[in-house]
Amino acid sequence: MVHFRNSFLPHLHDAKPRHVATPDYGGLKIQFLAEENAPRAIDVLQQQNWPPHDRDTDENDIDTYYAFDDDIVRNPYSEYDDDSIRTSKHCRRVAWHRKLPINCNLIHELDFLNSIQDGHAEYAGEGAYRQVHLLQLDQDPLIAFKKYRWDAAYDFRDLEFMRMDAVVAEVMSTEPDIVDIYGFCALAIVNEGILGGDLEEIATPIEIERGKFIENDKSGQGLQPLNNLTATEKILYSLEMAEALSKLHAYPGGVIVHDDIHLGQFLIDDLGHLKLQDFNRAEIMLWNEEDGEYCRYRNNPGDGEFRAPEEYLDRPLNEKIDVWSLGINMYYVLTGSTVLPEAKTTEEYQERIMKGEKPPIDPRFRERSFAEQTMVDIIERCWIYNPDERIDIFGVVQILREAVKHFE
C-alpha cells in the first residue's frame, strides 16, 4: 500500500460547491450562481468558462435539450400568455434529473430479432410510439421488452420520454408495487414481465360507448355495479393504487408526478397485487429556493377522460393531477361504469369538467357497505376543483389504511 503525506492530498476543503441537494422531500438546498456569472458551460477540454448573459439558451435546440446543464435557472411559466400566470420564478431541476441508467450490454445479449424468429418473444401490445414483447429465455424470469415502433415518426424528444421512464423506474426499483426495470438503452427498455393483465380488464369489463346508458338496477335487487368486484377487493385495490402513487410523491430526491394515471397503468402480478408502470410522461418537479416550494409546470392541454380540470385548461400543474386521476380510477373500481355517462362525447365531458362540474356518484353506493362508503368519500375529495384544496395522496392512503383495518 502506498502512503501519501498530507501535503500531497488535494485540498478538498477549499472547494465550495455551488449547490448541495439533500434528500428530504422538498428541502433541496441550492445556491444560485453569482449575479455576475451566466450559466456554466463545460467544453471538450473539461475547462469551465462563463458565457455572457445574453447568450441564447433555447431548450428546444437539440444540443441544449440533451447537453443539460443544471446550473440553468428556468421559469416554467414564461410561455403562458396569461399575465396572472407569467411571473418571474427561479426554478432548477434536481441533480438526478439527467441520470442515465444505461445497460446496453443486456439489451444486445437478448438478441431480440432471433428471439422473435425462434418463437421466444410474444407480441403483447403497443402504444403511441412503443411496442411491447414478452420474452422467456431458458429459466430466466419473464421479461417485457419495450422498443420503439418501426413505423413511428421519430422525434428527438421521444428519447427523453423513454429516458424518463427508465430514470423513474430505476429510482423506484426497490419498491414492490412498482414494475421493476432490468435494462435501458436508447430506444429500448427491459422490465419485469407480468401476465396477469391490468386493472382495467376487471374493473370495467363492460365497454360502454359514451352517451349510452346501461341500466344497473333493473333486476329489482337495487343498485348493481357493472363489475364483479367485492367491496373488500375494491378498497384493497384502491389502497394499492394509492400506495404505489405515494411512492412517487414522497420520493426523497424530490416530488415525481406520474402524469398519466389510468387503470391500464396498474398491472396485476402472480399474487394478485397491483404494480404501477409507464413513467414516460413523468415530471420531476423543479424547486424554487427563493420561495421554498416546488415550481408547477406546463404540459399543454390534456386529452382523455381521466385528467384533472387544470390539465384541460392548460394551467400550471403539480402532483395533485395524479390525485384527481386516482379518483377517476376509484370510481371505475367502485361502479364499473363511465364517469358522467350522459356526456355524449369526450369533448363534452372535458368541457363540463373544465366548467367545474363534479361528476355525480349514485348515493346508494354509500349504503352498500362501509368500504364503498369510504371510497365515495375519498373520490369526492379527489375531485375538488381547486388543486390547492384537493386532498393529497398521503391523506388518501391514511384513510384507506384505516378502512382496511375493518377487514383484517
The sequence of SSEs as H and E is EEEEHHHEEEHEEHHEEEEEEHHHHHH
Q: How many distinct beta strands?
A: 15
Q: Which sheet architecture does the biggest sheet show? A: 5 strands, antiparallel
Q: What is the mean pLDDT?
A: 81
The number of helical elements comes to 12
Through-space gap between termini: 60 Å
The CATH class of the largest domain is: Mainly Alpha
Outline of the structure:
The protein has 408 residues and is an alpha+beta fold.
Explained architecture:
By secondary structure, this protein is an alpha+beta fold. Helix content is 28%, strand content 13%. It folds into 2 domains: 104-192, Phosphorylase Kinase, domain 1, CATH 3.30.200.20; 199-407, Transferase(Phosphotransferase) domain 1 (Transferase(Phosphotransferase), domain 1, Orthogonal Bundle), CATH 1.10.510. The strands form 6 sheets. The chain has a 5-stranded antiparallel beta sheet. A two-stranded antiparallel ribbon has the order 1-2. Strands 3-4 form a two-stranded antiparallel ribbon. Helix 8 packs antiparallel against helix 11. It comes from Fistulifera solaris. GO terms for molecular function: ATP binding; protein serine/threonine kinase activity. Residues 118-404 form the Protein kinase domain. InterPro entries: Kinase-like_dom_sf, Prot_kinase_dom, Ser/Thr_Kinases-Pseudokinases.
